[in-house]
Write a structure and sequence with these properties.
The protein is mainly β and 129 residues long. The chain contains no helices and 13 strands.
Length: 129
């Protein structure tokens, strides 16, 4: 049965200092093949280098991001996206003045990432949480 997901009532979650995340779709909301979330990052902050076993699309909604994919660094602004291949090291940071708003879509319903920084949480939004 189809249902509407009210994103206005989904909470913001602090992933790290200066980075707030709102889950839009995942295994917890009935997703089977997608994980979609938004992040709001203070200037200079974002996601450290990591990999996923699946493809990811990073879309800048507002602000300016520097997105690193392997050895490449791209400056990405509003209404631009970067497709990140499965298994490719990547990360991003806000290189603008205001808040960076990005939307990430992963080809899996559970967020899993292997971070260079082992203190980072590697799995989120698992149905067993």
């Amino acid at each position: 049965m189809a249902k509407a997901i009210d994103h206005d009532v989904q909470p913001l979650e602090k992933w790290r200092d200066g980075v707030m995340t709102r889950m839009r779709v995942s295994a917890l909301s009935g997703g089977h093949q997608l994980c979609i979330f938004e992040q709001y990052c203070d200037s200079g902050l974002g996601a450290p280098m990591h990999i996923h076993a699946v493809e990811e699309v990073l879309e800048v909604i507002a602000g300016t991001a520097e997105i690193a994919v392997g050895d490449d660094k791209l400056i990405v602004t509003a209404n631009q996206s970067v497709l990140i291949p499965a298994g490719k090291r990547h990360g991003f940071k806000n290189v603008g003045e205001g808040i960076l708003h990005v939307r990430a879509t992963l080809a899996a319903s559970i967020f899993e990432g292997a971070y260079d920084d082992k203190s980072e949480t590697s799995r989120r939004w698992s149905p067993q949480d």
